[in-house]
Amino acid sequence: MAKVLVVTSGKGGVGKTTSTAALGAALAQSGQKVAMIDFDVGLRNLDLIMGAERRVVFDLINVIKGDAKLEQALIRDKRVETLHLLPASQTRDKDNLTDEGVGRVIEGLREKFDWIICDSPAGIERGATLAMRHADVAVVVTNPEVSSIRDSDRIIGLLDSKTLKAENGEQVEKHLLLTRYDPARAQRGEILKVEDVLDILSIPLLAIIPESTEVLRSSNLGAPVTLGSPNSAPARAYLEAVRKLQGQTVEVQKQRGLFSKLFARRAA
Amino acid sequence: MSLFSFFNRRTSAPVARERLQVLLAHERTIVGGESDLVAILREEILAVIAKHMAVPQDSVQIKMDRGASVSTLEVDIEIPTSITAGMRPAA
Question: Within 10 A of B79 (CB to CB), how many other CB atoms are there?
Answer without folding.
Answer: 14
